[in-house]
């Protein structure tokens, strides 16, 4: 059975309190700064969406609030965009304080580089007009994208390929890559879509939720792709299913919009 091999994110926090004198540290005018947690969140969100691997910021707000809430804030920023959340591999951050200023350094490792993500976007922009036509309904668009992925991607039995980039450039990936590719293609086609995280009998798994009209539906492209790969074969066993149908063999571990 197909499963997702999660690489859990590494989170580390180091608080180093200085001697309380600005003699030891002079804030740099070229480093991004924030004075409130809301401003910090907004500026971090921008950096992370750019897939910056090294982020340095200065914070001049309440240091007790920063210490208590920064880990949660960072998790929330990563979770804002499903694509970013599921190409994240690991991250490490430190917070050092000098007097009224805190210096935050974050090192982030992504499963896709920024350049690879740009290539995915470019390939999808080129591909979609060949499979989707302006007169198509949302249902037709979703079906065409579902079918294209099933017919052009095979499940990676080595469990080494996790991304949409892998799916497009090697033709192989695990459920994470299937779901990421579907997410980017559907987004580009104007379809509201989520990546949903859960479990199946064999372990961790991810798939998609798609929005048609006023209703959400589950779509598991991975499980609609036969193993071993069978040329020209597309299954619809997990295409546009409601919660009750999906719960027979899928369980989700977070809150998502109801598919009823």
UniProtKB/TrEMBL annotation:
GO cellular component terms, A-Z:
cytoplasm
In terms of SMART domains, this protein maps to: TGc (SM00460)
Name assigned to this protein = Uncharacterized protein
**Family matches, as InterPro entries:** CAP/Cytokinesis_protein (IPR052557), Papain-like_cys_pep_sf (IPR038765), Transglutaminase-like (IPR002931)
| Taxonomic lineage of the native organism | Bacteria, Bacillati, Bacillota, Bacilli, Bacillales
- Listed Pfam families: Transglut_core
